[in-house]
Amino acid sequence: MSDEQFFSEIRELVLKIEELVDEHDMRDRVMSLFIMGVLDHDIFGDTKLKALFSYNIQTAVELNELVDFAYNTWSLPDENEIDSSIDDLLDGLDIDLEE
């Protein structure tokens, strides 16, 4: 699948979400910030971002609220969480990662 096809499918989904917001008459109550990107490299090997975005934000205050929310709720998983999630995935498969 090409990046263009991928973004086309994602755009269709975003439009469906926008339609749902309007169907439920929630446009004046919903704040949204959608950004999805694909990393690529240019001919010089530099990383570039191809992105699709959609905003339903009326003011800079709303934008800051959403950015603050994303910042405050996002975190890198610590090593213990990664190990534990792998153990959970392998549970019942009789596979042990410890030596």
Q: What do these coordinates show?
A:
- This protein is of the alpha+beta class and about 100 residues long.
- Helices cover about 45% and strands about 20% of the residues.
- The chain is built from 3 helices and 2 strands; from the N terminus they run αββαα.
- The protein has a two-stranded antiparallel ribbon with strand order 1-2.
- A hairpin with a 5-residue loop joins β1 (about 30-40) and β2 (about 45-55).
- The protein is extended and about 45 Å long.
- The N and C termini lie far apart (about 40 Å).
- The mean pLDDT is about 85.
Fraction in beta strands: 15-25%
Q: Tally the helices.
A: 3
Outline type: extended
Structural class: alpha+beta
What share of residues is helical?
A: 40-55%
Order the strands across the largest sheet as they lie in space: 1-2
Mean pLDDT: 84
Number of strands: 2
CA-based gyration radius: 20 Å
Outline the biggest β-sheet. 2 strands, antiparallel
> What is the string of helix and strand elements?
HEEHH
Identify low-pLDDT runs: none
User: What's the N-to-C terminus distance?
Assistant: 40 Å
